[in-house]
């Protein structure tokens, strides 16, 4: 019987961008939101969350990643702007957005999604919105407070970086937070 693991496909974020995101998180913490903040070293750009998979499927997933990446050069992106999901009245997640070659990123994500659906993974119902999660709110947030925070960081932008490797990560949930291990990678 094969082992099951939680897995997702993502781009890693360079250290200099993670440092900038850490500074934004520190600024947001000054608003005293009841939130679980993502550790900066755990922030990544998820292209596909796979959920619980059989470890025997790793090779098939790696093949789909390779096929999807074929013909792509590294994708130039930067982090820009800030927002919340699902909406300002009932925010659950606070995130930063992306700028740069976001259309290419969306195309790559679609190729991954289609390829993965062909091997049994469910296609995404929602349209892809590339973002980096900074935190998740634990309680209801005052709309006026979140609006002020979003306005403060609305102009936030990082230097460009390259999304140049698709990585299949294993995610282990622990009391101290998720721990990610690289299982496979494909260069663009």
Annotation field: number of helices: 4
Question: Order of strands in the sheet with the most strands?
Answer: 2-6-5-4-7
Name of the CATH architecture: Alpha-Beta Complex
- Ranges with pLDDT <50 over ≥5 residues? none
CATH top level assignment: Alpha Beta
Tell me the fraction of residues in β-strands, as a range. Answer: 35-45%
What is the string of helix and strand elements?
A: EHEEHEEHEHEEE
The CATH superfamily is identified as Cyclic phosphodiesterase
Globular, elongated, flat, extended or rod-shaped: what is the shape? globular
CATH topology: Cyclic Phosphodiesterase, Chain: A
Q: Label the structural class.
A: alpha+beta
Rounded Rg: 17 Å
Percent of residues in helices comes to: 25-40%
Show the helix and strand layout.
Blueprint: E1 4-12, H1 15-29, E2 35-37, E3 44-54, H2 58-69, E4 75-85, E5 93-100, H3 102-117, E6 132-137, H4 143-152, E7 161-163, E8 165-172, E9 179-187
Antiparallel strand pairs: 1-3, 1-8, 2-6, 4-5, 4-7, 5-6, 8-9
């Amino acid at each position: 019987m094969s082992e099951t693991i939680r897995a997702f496909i993502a781009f890693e974020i360079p250290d200099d961008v993670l440092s900038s995101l850490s500074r934004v998180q520190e600024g947001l913490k000054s608003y005293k939101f009841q939130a679980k903040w993502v550790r900066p070293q755990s922030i990544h750009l998820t292209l596909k969350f796979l959920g619980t998979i059989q470890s025997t499927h790793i090779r098939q997933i790696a093949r789909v990643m390779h096929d999807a990446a074929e013909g792509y050069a590294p994708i130039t992106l930067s982090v820009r702007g800030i927002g919340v999901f699902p909406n300002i009245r009932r925010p659950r997640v606070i995130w930063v957005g992306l700028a740069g070659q976001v259309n290419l990123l969306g195309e790559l994500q679609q190729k991954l999604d289609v390829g993965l659906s062909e091997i049994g993974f469910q296609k995404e119902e929602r349209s892809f919105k590339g973002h980096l999660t900074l935190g998740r709110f634990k309680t209801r947030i005052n709309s006026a407070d979140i609006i002020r925070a979003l306005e403060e960081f609305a102009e936030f932008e990082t230097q460009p970086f390259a999304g140049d490797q698709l990585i299949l990560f294993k995610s282990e949930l622990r009391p101290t937070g998720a721990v990610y291990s690289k299982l496979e990678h494909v260069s663009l």
